Amino acid sequence: PPPPPTHLQEAQAKLPSAQLSQLSQLLAGLVKMGVKPAASWLACLEEQAVACLVEQAVRVQVTQGQRQQQQQLDDNAAAEGGSSNLRRSSSSSSSNSSRSPAGCRLHDVAQLLAAFAEARHSPAPQLAAARWGATADSLAAADVAALVVLLTALGELQLVPPGSWMQQYYCSTAGHLGQYRPWQLAASVAAVGKLVQAGRTGGSQPTILQQQQQDAAAADGAHGAEWVSAVLQQVQRQLPAFAARDLAALLSGLAALQLPL
Q: Alpha carbon of 154 to those of 21, 89, 111, 150, 214: distances in Å?
């Protein structure tokens, strides 16, 4: 049964101190129970999600700065003929600093967006903007399931990422397409088709985001074509395992992409 209103009020009072994983689990649970919270409740959740994403983006920038600083130290040590032990130590430190920072994980972002899509609630522009900086550095390390969930949710919500984010997505996933199951290949192409189509039309997003969507669609066109070509190679290998609904989703995505195949 749906939770009593008092339980939602109690949960809302705790939202400002919640982590992104807790936010995604809470909203996903409510969606499964058929509960769509009030707009004010969702606004509180989105506000805390933005705070988590901003914190993660800052951590990403700090990590990148540390990586660049360590690289400079390595270069200086090599130029000055530093010892091999120093270089090995620097290399180890650099490797540690390049790991994704703890906190908000891409998996949690994907689950939160999936819950928004299931609830048919389009996130506020602030949440959409905060998401890109917090997740771009995690794409390469994310598992296939999280990547597919994330891309599918973006397609359902028609939230078009910046061109640079999509390019990183294509580069991060291209080498792992052999791990995708048939339905994951189909869902990914269908999602990219929805995003490209939304970029052409401006989708249902506010006017201030329409130009960003159009720029993103133009910027990632070439990378998208290469990525789809790589996906189709995997589709050919796995074609006997495709269900009818997967083939329908695949063809729908290809039609939206309008690529010369």
A: 18, 41, 11, 6, 16
Among 60-64, 117-121, 212-216, 237-241, where is mean pLDDT lowest? 212-216
What does DSSP assign to residue 104?
Answer: S
At residue 180, the pLDDT reads: 96
pLDDT at 120: 86
- Locate 70 and state its tokens: 């360590």
Q: Cβ(103)–Cβ(52) under 8 Å?
A: yes
Contacts of 106 (CB under 8 A, 6+ apart): 135, 138, 139, 142, 146, 147, 150
Inter-CA distances, 23 with 26, 33, 131, Å? 5, 16, 14
Average pLDDT across the chain, whole number: 79
Cα separation, 30 vs 117, whole angstroms = 13
Element (H, E) at 77: helix 39-79
Take residue 129 and report the two structure tokens written for it. Answer: 């903007």
Nearest-Å Rg of the Cα atoms of the chain is 21
What six digits make up the tokens of 102? 């703890």
**Residue 124 in 3-state DSSP?**
coil
The DSSP result for 153-165, as a single string, is HHHHHT-PPPHHH
Q: What is the pTM of this model?
A: 0.73
Q: How far apart are alpha carbons 154 and 163 in whole angstroms?
A: 14
Do 21 and 101 contact (CB within 8 A), yes or no? no
Give the pair of three-digit tokens for residue 230.
């790589």
Nearest by Cα to 231 from 167, 186, 195? 186
Residue in the block written with tokens 């720029």: 215
How many CB atoms sit inside 10 A of residue 171's CB? 14
Confidence of residue 252 (pLDDT cuts 50, 70, 90): very high
The mean pLDDT of 215-229, rounded to a whole number, is: 68
